[in-house]
Amino acid sequence: MCFERIGRLGAILSVLPLFFGESCTVKEDRRDCPCLLSVEFSPLPPGPVEYRVEAKDGSLLARETVTRDSVYFFKVPRDGVRLVAISGTALADDVVIPYGSDCPPAYISHATYDTNYEAVQIRPTFNKHFCTLSIILDGPPGDGGPVQIGIRGRVGALSLEGRPLAGEFSYISSGRASPLTCRLPRQAPSEQLLLDIVMEDNLLRTFALGTYLRQSGYDWGEKDLKDISVTICLSVTHITFHIQDWSVCVERNVEI
Fold first, then answer.
1. CA 5, CA 99: separation in Å to the nearest integer?
2. Contact 46, 105 (CB under 8 A)
3. Domains in the chain, ordered, with CATH?
4. Which CA distances in Å does 84 have to 94, 122, 220, 228?
5. For the segment 180-229, what is each residue's pLDDT rounded down to a tens digit?
6. What is the spatial distance between Cα 59 and Cα 82, in angstroms, rounded to a whole number?
7. Is residue 169's pLDDT more than 50?
8. How many CB atoms lie within 10 A of CB 203?
């Protein structure tokens, strides 16, 4: 029985060099030997995923694009690695939103991993860092002309950790169909988010959209941002905002 166990152990040890090379043996101190890191991308968020693996000192260990559920293997240092992966936009230092555009549909995975082991298996988790805002217009703006919706804010980028970064955000709907949609980046603070009603390139009204969203109970701190629908009821004297079960009625004047 003892010889059988030794034989099985020998068989296992014989394949270790295939993963870790011939430089490390069982008798040696294995703290300097690499860790076998396996990264499983499943399930994937919508669209291709671009990722990179970095050592503790920031040096690049691997960079790939994933288009389907896959598993990748790497030899990495034992003092830890960082993995960043993103879909919906190119992988860069930050997710920068061009002025005049809405936020890209960014799903981001960002984490550091302890690799002080012979082997480590990880499965990156992606979080949704944008909100798709759908705006339904009910009633004419007064003279029956078509209107557009503009959104302005003070978040112009996202870090790879998903944190809002200061910058100018401005987007105006290109079409006039209802609902009008705009992808918003994670906000902080939401009170700086403004909504403009525009007709024939003329600004008619401005509303404190961020305040309305906060008062309706919307939470910008959730790991995965929820999409939200806003109905704007236009009348001769008032404009009413309906957000989920919350509503506010304001006179038809400029509100900032």
1. 66
2. yes
3. 31-127 (2.60.40), 130-251 (2.60.40)
4. 11, 13, 22, 28
5. 899 999 998 778 899 998 887 888 889 999 999 999 999 999 999 999 99
6. 10
7. yes
8. 11
